[in-house]
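Problem 3 from the worked examples.
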Amino acid sequence: QVQLVESGGGSVQAGGSLRLSCAASKYTFDNYCIAWFRQSPAKEREEVGNLAKNGIRFVADSFKGRFTISKDNAKNILYLQMNNLKPEDTAMYYCAARARYCSGLADAFDYWGQGTQVTVSS
């Protein structure tokens, strides 16, 4: 069974940084695409980036330059480093897994974590 556990959310001021964590098993990382999504009120869930089974990392264009994805292989944790945060980054951030190739569509993912809230104040 795939389990994804997010952590690291919180409240920061604009311009600050946060690092989110997504913990999963080694099996999950070896066999699933793992992605970060976010959702704010009245908006659809959007992909921030992902880590494919082959280790290739992707960050959506709208987040490049501020957000990066990395993985700690020893701890089996996927990180989302968020810098220069803006109030519009306020959202619930989710980790998701998909057994096949990576997709930017939330509906394509089968497993979701509980989410971690990020709030950025101006």
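Problem 4, a separate protein:
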Amino acid sequence: EVQLVESGGGLVQAGASLRLSCATSGFAFDNYAIGWFRQAPGTGSEREVVSCISVGAGRTEYADSVTGRFTISSDSAKKTLYLQMNNLKPEDTAVYYCAADSELCGDNMDYWGKGTLVTVSS
């Protein structure tokens, strides 16, 4: 059974840092593209990609809005994905999801976690 379990969300003030973790099991971690997505609270908000990593190649991608503030990393031994978020802004408030795909990061990922809420107050 494939599992992706996010943790590390919470309520912080603007300028603070958080580190999200995504513990995975049930698929070949090193052979997948794994990423963080987020969806702001409220109706009508779209889910957007935050950052992705091709674990085997070590290639990373970031949304323009988080470049320079967020860092994605992975630990193959622990099969865990991380997102270090620094200098958080109120507009970073969202539910953050971890997802994995056997080919590429995108809207149609193979597996999704249930998400962890990050709230940034001004």
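Solution to problem 4. The chain has a mean pLDDT of 95. Residues 8 and 91 are 18 Å apart (CA to CA).
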